[in-house]
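User: Before I run my own analysis I want an independent prediction to cross-check against. Here's the chain; please return only the structure tokens and, at the end, one sentence I can use as a sanity check.
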Amino acid sequence: MTDQEWDDDVSALAACAFAIDHVQAFLHGEETDDTADEIRHHLMICEQCFEQYSVETLISAMLCRCFEHPVASSNLRERIACLHVTLG
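Assistant: Structure tokens:
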């Protein structure tokens, strides 16, 4: 393996790690436009990451169906209302 091939492999692994680490934020529209474009491009060229993305998409869709309208109990809402946050 040449140095260039080694560098290309390391670069590809880093791109995969970045895409997989950010896939949930990407799915939920929480990434900046530039980062989302970078992830989208990577998913288009990397079959393994696209498969992982597809699994994450399916899991996310199933969770949304199971918990369509999450509602906090009145007890939880009361406890949250009593919280006092001090910044400093």
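Sanity check: Helices lie at 3-21, 23-27, 33-45, 47-66, 74-81.
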